[in-house]
Amino acid sequence: MMQVIKCKNRVDYEGKITFHLPQDLENQELDVAIVYALAKSENIKNLDEVVDSFYGCLAEAPILAEENHQQKVA
């Protein structure tokens, strides 16, 4: 009987990936086939969009930094 286990995982810098199978398969011989597709992340935005989204957010609350005992406004 063939079963499918689906998961999302990241390949490390050496091209290795680790995954875990159910413990009830312990000490059993398996035929394993790996089918992969590149995952598309919906959460990653263009960096310019992220930076633009913060534009003006501190207009009413400037960042104060003290350098050589003189206060500066950033």
Give start-end ranges of low-pLDDT stretches.
Answer: none
Beta-strand fraction estimate: 5-15%
Bulk shape: elongated
Radius of gyration: 25 Å
Number of distinct helices: 1
The end-to-end distance, rounded to whole angstroms, is: 66 Å
- Portion of residues within helices: under 10%
**What strand order characterises the main sheet?**
1-2
Query: What do the pLDDT scores average to?
Result: 78
Q: What's the number of extended β-strand segments?
A: 2
Listing every helix as H and every strand as E from the N terminus to the C terminus, the arrangement reads HEE
Q: Could you give a short account of the major beta sheet?
A: 2 strands, antiparallel
Structural class: little secondary structure
Annotation keywords:
9% helix, little secondary structure, 1 helix, two-stranded antiparallel sheet, 74 residues
Question: Would you give an account of this structure?
Answer:
The N and C termini lie far apart (66 Å). The chain has one helix at 47-53, and strands at 64-67, 70-73. The radius of gyration is 25 Å and the shape is elongated. By secondary structure, the chain is mostly loops. Strand 1 (64-67) and strand 2 (70-73) form a beta hairpin.
